[in-house]
Automatic annotation (TrEMBL):
Matching Pfam families: ROK (PF00480)
InterPro entries: ATPase_NBD, ROK
Protein name, UniProt field: ROK family protein
Membership in a protein family: Belongs to the ROK (NagC/XylR) family.
Organism: Nocardioides eburneus
Signal peptide: none
Length: 306
């Protein structure tokens, strides 16, 4: 009898990506559809991806199906709210129940950064790891001794909302309501403000321009890298992980991002023997571009202690 597959979904504002994965972590199939916004659109698109994966693999789906989604998530109830890029506003949206009704299989739901963290842990094969998501905002996921740390209020890893001085944004208001948050410096949105482009991605544009010797681009890149390094430093001092994995949309820049953040970490440690001894730059990794870590992590949610 052919073994069933684990299925994980990464639901984002532009696409829903699903993977069918064996118990050993091999990806048998992928399916991607454009996201239709709103409660019905999200559920309909997610169900379509699962059905397509069933058809492509010819296998039964293990229960439960895992879903990673942005917004505020209650994993125990399988609900989500304030996923504004998906058209999910206000009240708790019972995504797990709605999908389970459509598919006839139980569903578990997790925040997308936490799902990506579990995927990064699977890819790297270590039990202590931090995933730093450099997307529109800035947030981290933490795995300690093989277990995902969510926190009492689900706020573990929200380093983007740490107000830190030294970047000149102390008077600027963050979307969270505080002033001077790290996310105002070290996020995709921050790069878009500092280096606006008419098409394409600001991160790719500013790193390309800095590589070509544009002095202003170099300054934007180095300020951004210093902000990311500050987040890495906070996480390193808080939980002392074996690895810090950089992911999210900005991480598609690749090795130049790793080089810039590593250089910033070494510069920040230059006058501190204590920081230098931690060698945080050596712990940095990039998400492999061919590994959809959020979907992979979602596929493992049914095997993860809740």
């Amino acid at each position: 009898m052919t073994a069933p597959v684990d299925v994980g979904l990464d639901i984002g504002g532009s696409k829903i990506l699903g993977v069918a994965v064996t118990a050993d972590g091999d990806v048998l199939a992928r399916e991607r559809v454009a996201t239709a916004l709103g409660p019905d659109g999200v559920a309909r698109g997610a169900a379509a991806v699962v059905e397509a994966l069933r058809a492509r693999t010819g296998r039964q789906v293990s229960a439960p199906i895992g879903v990673g989604i942005p917004g505020i998530v209650d994993p125990r109830r399988g609900t989500v709210k304030h996923a504004v890029n998906l058209g999910l506003h206000g009240e708790w949206y019972p995504l797990a129940d709605l999908l389970a009704d459509r598919l006839g299989v139980p569903v578990v739901v997790e925040n997308d950064v936490n799902a990506a963290t579990l995927g990064a842990r699977l890819v790297e094969g270590v039990a202590d790891l931090v995933y730093l998501g450099l997307g529109t905002g800035l947030a981290a996921g933490v795995v300690l001794d093989g277990r995902l740390r969510r926190g009492i209020a689900g706020a573990a890893g929200e380093v983007g909302h740490l107000p830190l001085g030294g970047f000149g944004v102390e008077r600027e208001r963050c979307q969270c309501g505080q002033h001077g948050c790290l996310e105002l410096v070290a996020s995709g949105r921050a790069l878009e403000r500092a280096w606006p482009v008419e098409e394409g991605h600001a991160a790719a544009a500013v790193f390309a321009a800095s590589a070509a010797g544009d002095a202003r681009a170099v300054a934007v890149r180095d300020r951004f890298a210093a902000g990311v390094a500050a987040g890495v430093r906070v996480l390193g001092l808080a939980v002392d992980p074996r690895l810090v994995v950089l992911g999210g949309g900005v991480a598609q820049v690749g090795e130049p991002l790793l080089t810039a953040v590593g250089a910033a970490l070494r510069a920040q440690a230059a006058e501190s023997p204590f920081l230098a001894s931690l060698d945080l730059a050596a712990r940095l990794r990039l998400v492999p571009p061919d590994r959809p870590v959020a979907a992979l992590g979602a596929a493992r949610l049914g095997r993860t202690p809740r």
